[in-house]
Design brief:
The structure holds two protein chains of two kinds.
Chain A: E1 2-7, H1 17-27, E2 32-40, H2 44-51, E3 56-63, H3 72-82, E4 88-92, H4 95-108, E5 112-116, E6 118-121, E7 124-129, E8 134-140, E9 146-150, E10 165-168, E11 179-186, E12 199-203, H5 213-223, E13 226-229, H6 231-235, E14 256-260, H7 266-272, E15 277-282, H8 289-292, E16 295-298, H9 301-313
Parallel strand pairs in A: 1-2, 1-4, 2-3, 3-10, 4-9, 5-9, 12-13, 12-14, 14-15, 15-16
Antiparallel strand pairs in A: 6-7, 7-8
Helix pairs in contact in A: 3-4, 5-9
Chain B: E1 3-8, E2 10-12, E3 34-36, H1 38-53, E4 58-65, H2 70-79, E5 83-88, H3 95-109, E6 113-117, H4 128-136, E7 140-150, E8 153-160, E9 163-170, E10 173-177, H5 189-195, E11 200-204, H6 205-208, E12 216-222, E13 231-233, H7 236-245
Parallel strand pairs in B: 1-4, 1-6, 4-5, 5-11, 6-10, 7-10
Antiparallel strand pairs in B: 2-3, 7-8, 8-9
Helix pairs in contact in B: 2-5, 3-4
The chains are: A alpha/beta, B alpha/beta.
Amino acid sequence: MHKVLIVGEHDGKTLNPATAKCVTCARSIPDAEITIALLGADTAAVAAQAAALAGVKAVVRVDRPENLHPLAAIFAPQVAALAADYTHVFGPSTSFGKDLMPRAAALLGVAQVSDLMAVESAYRFRRPIYAGNAIVTVEADPARKLVATVRVASFEAAGGGGGASVGSKSLAVELPSHTRYVGAKSGSTDRPDLQTAARVVSGGRALGSAENFKLLFSFADKIGAAVGASRAAVDAGYAPNEMQVGQTGKIISPEIYIAIGISGAIQHLTGIKDARTIVAINKDGEAPIFEVADVGLVGDLFQVVPEFERLVSS
Amino acid sequence: MQKIMVCIKRVVDYNVRVRVKPDGSGVMLDGVKMSVNPFDEIALEEALRIKERGTNIEVVAVSIGVADTQQQLRTALAMGADRAILVQTDLPVEPLTAAQTFLAVAKKEAPDLIFLGKQAIDDDANQTGQMLAAIWERPQATYASKVEITGAKAVVTREVDAGLESIEVDLPAVITVDLRLNEPRYVKLPDIMKAKKKPLDVTSLDALGVSAGQLIKTVKTEPPAQRQKGVMVKDVAELVDVLKKKGLL
């Protein structure tokens, strides 16, 4: 049997959907028994959400005041201590997991496999390299603990209806004081989370200004979509970096991705190629985005988008 | 602040369109242009800016790789690093081995700060900085978009999925850098000439007491699956129609 520990990501209130995707990845490990670990100041609410995920056997809460913010230096020694009872330790390939998991792996003295996109056996996986321009199949040593991050765009979220046991664990781990949380600035919004949204509307440099991005926000709100941006649009200052989609931004896999005024640089396509359906709207019929689009429309976005918005709401 | 160490990786230049070998044994590297990993260039630039703001700060560029990696270290010296160290090896170096090697160098050099790129654009592992911080038992501040040093502390603004996060770390610390931290300088010809005279020491994994473990074996390399070409529609009405039929609106 393989015992898989998933380090859950949450903000104290809500379990990040990336965790449910890690569960699906873990379930494709043969004969896997899945446990979710939650580190936080008070994880009662998120533990209930984690316990409801289908296929999870147990949820382990590690509550202590130092765990209020997810600092890798604080979390990693605790994850390493928890890992003792498991064959596999997974975290999501989000900024949370990418920061934390290698630190935990190094404390355990083992290698990490980053960005699992497919599981071929308990110790054989596929992952992208060179920004997704090549896919490698890798094998890890079954004699060692396997630490990995899961490329969330490659897996569906596990469903609900599960009934995992919830327990608490106190770890006798000394925590460092050399790293302190100062604060966060997020573009807080009522829109769906870009990383996990089913619908994403994204804008490129052709938008021309931050002001013009309002056009996309209005349309996105009409169809309940998250809003993204190309690196060109971010670099031009039209949109904040947390909206960036692509190799150097977020890698996403929505049901529908609507690329508006985005030419389709390789690094952008890397971030969207797992989208179920890609729609491209661009006035340049030769734009590379049309090579990957399922549905393409050549036209001026400043006319197309308002009309699109009108027609979907009618 | 007296010394900053910057870790640099030699990678396929980011402008090269990487192709997979037909036999699946890897990607084609023969005759391909090699460069400093772009994120490591940003790391070096940040170290140089801190050096230029301070007094008597030494910047040491360190790399692990084949003999030709000296080219990338010469680039680092031309940008402004004071000296360079190459840990020469022909073996493939996994992130954990890289971290152990940089740790061995750090123990000799005792830097106040170690800068690295957040990831290398070849294997995209995004591990070495975090692993180095772990085994050095020092703080890590990953994905930095702003670094402010005051005395023996650094406040680092980090690019995280939700936006920006700030953390404060005690020095010495490891900082891995993201794209928006700075724009690296261009190297000028006189600097290239000057760099030829700067010290570049070559050492080995053996000399540092590091054994290059191969914990993860790559068994196959393939090109990614291609998406099928889709349909073009003539106007918005048709677009909405197609999407409604697919059940997407």
